[in-house]
Amino acid sequence: MAVGDERHVELREALRALCAGFPDAYFRRVDAERAYPVEFVAALTRGGWLAALIPAEYGGSGLGLAEASVIMEEINRSGGNAGACHGQMYNMGTLLRHGSAEQKQRWLPAIARGELRLQSMGVTEPGTGSDTTRIRTSAQRRGDRYVVNGQKVWISRVHHSELMILLARTTPLAELRRRSEGLSVFLVDLREAIGRGLQVRPIANMVNHDTSELFFEELEIPADNLIGVEGQGFRYILDGLNAERTLIAAECIGDGYWFVDRVSRYARSREVFGRPIGQNQGVQFPIAESYIEVEAANLMRWRACERFDAQLPCGTEANLAKYLAAKASWEAANACLQFHGGFGFACDYDVERKFRETRLYQVAPISTNLILSYVAEHVLGLPRSY
Ligand SMILES: Cc1cc2nc3c(=O)[nH]c(=O)nc-3n(C[C@H](O)[C@H](O)[C@H](O)COP(=O)(O)OP(=O)(O)OC[C@H]3O[C@@H](n4cnc5c(N)ncnc54)[C@H](O)[C@@H]3O)c2cc1C
After folding, report:
1. Distance CA 269, CA 348 (A)
2. pLDDT tens-digit profile of 154-171?
3. Per-residue pLDDT for 1 more than 80?
4. Is 163 within 8 Å of 157 (Cβ atoms)?
5. Is it the case that residue 206 has pLDDT exceeding 90?
6. How far apart are CA 90 and CA 228, in angstroms?
7. Residue 366 CB less than 6 A away from ligand 1
8. Which of 132, 201, 204, 366 has the fewest CB atoms below 10 angstroms from its CB?
């Protein structure tokens, strides 16, 4: 039993029933083939689970972040990987909060029905990394179009999405007083863009996370696809980050419970030197410690959800939840791998797969150092370091 298991019981049961149809062997095969879990994501979409945060007036279920986070947690806790589709859960927030009435009506109902996928968000660039306000990809207004030139890196799920949120510079840095101004958000229709100004080059990487480099050369986007006010895009992207961080914290918590559960089960049954390995305190303590840390991170996740759903400021809580959860799941992953001995490395046990998957969250979507830096500056009032 974990902190929060008594919350949203029916929702958890529904998700557990759905996930039971996609056992370890399914995700193992998808990982080995570097494939996309098409059937799993289709089942989630059919159930309306990925439209949890879309308001009922646009055809979604109008649930809160707490419920959305349970959906993400349960996927990872069942042995799956919500990373294949978590973008669909939160990327539409930018459109919902800052899009015009016409844009929302045009896209949100189709996204809620699963006919359009808004799974991608293009922010990171090779030359600037975490320093988002210095991005160089530009969008220049020419008549009724914007013309985009530049490059992005590590942009996920472009091959499994019709739409992408794009952050680009609309006013050169030299003409601005503040670095955070002059950036704008666009909705790019990938069906029209790929091959006509946008080239996509997949990056082979450690996790099965369809992720690519994007090259923009004179890509034309209708001016109607600008979201909100030109130049205010950085603020719009920041607005969405609290939801993203809290949902990813919930995924890490799901991973953390999966690792603790698996390793506890293994340590109870694996006998060496004539007794279960779990009888040794050298084995027990790291597992117990992992459980404590996952539980503690979970408390912060609920706090972030409560504040977000009450529309209270929650930047600190979302960052703390993400930090604690990513750290706890990684410690739990280490204990799980360690006490499976050699079998931890065998693909058939799924530990090495989950170990790789959860490691990502120390780096993306925000690296641990950048969270520490946020806390130092914004919570503790220490001088800004960059
Ligand atoms: C699998 C995967 C999927 C991704 N998907 C997406 C996506 O869909 N869309 C998207 O836009 N991006 C995506 N990213 C990019 C991700 O958000 C970035 O990798 C991450 O923000 C870090 O940026 P960077 O890789 O450029 O690292 P850098 O910014 O180069 O940083 C490298 C290291 O230095 C540290 N560092 C940098 N500056 C400081 C400082 N001032 N103080 C202390 N430490 C510092 C960082 O913490 C980090 O550990 C993805 C990345 C991966 C690996």
Report:
1. 17
2. 999 999 999 999 999 999
3. no
4. no
5. yes
6. 17
7. yes
8. 204
Q: Where are the beta strands (DSSP E) in the chain?
A: 120-122, 138-142, 145-156, 163-169, 183-189, 198-202, 211-222, 226-227, 271-272, 275-276
Could you say which of 244, 251, 293, 357 is catalytic?
Answer: 244
Please give the C-alpha separations between residue 151 and each of 41, 91, 180, 212, in angstroms, as whole numbers.
29, 20, 19, 11
Nearest-CA residue for ligand 1 atom 44 is 369
Can you count the helices (H) and strands (E) in the chain? 13, 10
**Which alpha helices (DSSP H) does 137-179 contain, by range?**
none
Phi, psi of 128 (to 5 degrees): -125, -20
With CA atoms as reference, report the closest residue to 148 among 221, 213, 201: 221
d(CA 48, CA 38): 15
| Ligand 1 center–CA 13 separation, angstroms | 35
Among residues 379, 112, 360, the alpha carbon closest in space to that of 251 is found at: 360
Q: Is the pLDDT confidence value at 239 over 90?
A: no
The whole-angstrom separation of Cα 332 and Cα 285 is 11
Q: Which amino acid is at 55?
A: P
Say if pTM beats, i.e. exceeds, 0.85: yes
Q: What length is written for the chain?
A: 386
CA of 138 to the centre of ligand 1 (A): 20
> Largest alpha-carbon pair distance within the chain?
79
Which residue minimizes the CA distance to atom 38 of ligand 1?
A: 130
